[in-house]
Amino acid sequence: METKESRREIPLSETTKFIVDNRGKTAPTSAEGIPLIATNCVNNQSLYPEHINVRYVSQETYDTWFRSHPEPGDILLTLKGSQNGAACLVPDPVNFAIAQDMVALRANEVIIDPSFLLAALRSPDVQAQIKNLDVSGVIPHLKKSDFDKLLIPYPDLPEQKPIGLYYVSLSKKIDLLHRQNKTLEAMAETLFRQWFVEEAQDDWEDVRIDQLVELNARSIDRSYQHSDILYLDTGSLNQGIVSELQEFAISESPSRAKRLVKHNDVLISTVRPNQKHYGIIKEPQENLVVSTGFCVLSCVDIDPHFIYLLLTSNEMTEYLHSVAEGSTSTYPSLKPSDIGSLTFKKPPLNKLEEFADISQSAWNKIFTNHNQIRTLEKLRDTLLPKLMSGEVRVAL
After folding, report:
1. What's the pLDDT tens digit per position in 183-232?
2. Gap between the Cα atoms of 66 and 54, Å rounded
3. Contact criterion met (CB below 8 Å) for 267 and 290
4. What is the pTM assigned to this prediction?
5. With the C-alpha atoms ordered 382, 388, 389, 395, is the resulting torsion angle positive or negative?
6. How far apart are CA 247 and CA 238, in angstroms?
7. CATH classification of 205-346 is 3.30.2130.10, yes or no?
8. Does domain 9-154 have CATH number 3.90.220.20?
9. Where does 233-277 show beta strands of DSSP type E?
């Protein structure tokens, strides 16, 4: 068996037949049109780029302004910022343009399997190389000239193909589960809007949020029994998805690690609400602690999914951000009382109970899918370095 030291490598620059490169050109944007994918939309977990806070370009700009466009199967590679070196596939069909600070790599299939190239770019060894190539000292930056120095594992093509197929197949399963969850949540959002916005009645009672929920009810105190914690910060919760939990000894935990949560608590970030750091906590581990940057809403007399959808609609997010921008702090932020004092028309009990049954069923499936996603991601990411080193092999 080949050892890691004996396995061949190839510069990234020798693996491509074309590179879509619009760097140095800031595209004129418009209010609507074709999505413009920026570096924040690309990460090393999602198979395809995510549409997060996207801007748009007109059809004319798309047709005439860019040097070239990605094609299905190309690999997007970010070259700047906190997501420097992140890679993902271009879907079929391509429904976006790409902004500067990234390129689209078109693999030369005679030399390298495109799926294998994606897996290789995401492997720990190559990611470490990307980090070490950056000598800017300020904003992480990868130059196109660095492609000559960035070495990709290079087993024979017959060995590359099953590795690439395995990696992308697992990633597609993960992507499908994410899309199922988005569909389930979108269906719940549609039902919520129809029943409680479009069909709202004037005679429904006006109530405040804090009449039905407790705000920040539990925090760590001297009676806390765990010596280690799992910590969720605001940046690790995005539109209902937890990306990371950090482990700390309680004596070494961040100063903001104070809030305690229970099943079905709703979390809303009080900092920059427009960044959509919110979600519902499901079956948390006993030592889960969340940041004081969250407002924790524990629903007492109302379904948590109702409150979650009420507070995370686009209209409410825009309103909360406008309130946050009027704060006296150095950055846009809310007080828990800003959320607690919000009023809404409370629907009749039978309507709320019917919605609770439907939404609970949807979120049970979402939670099951989240658990499966985490299992598949752990399997994929654990095996990736072993596949690249030759320690583990897969066969077609």
Report:
1. 999 999 999 999 999 999 999 999 999 999 999 999 998 889 999 999 99
2. 17
3. yes
4. 0.84
5. positive
6. 19
7. no
8. yes
9. 237-238, 241-242, 246-249, 257-260, 266-269
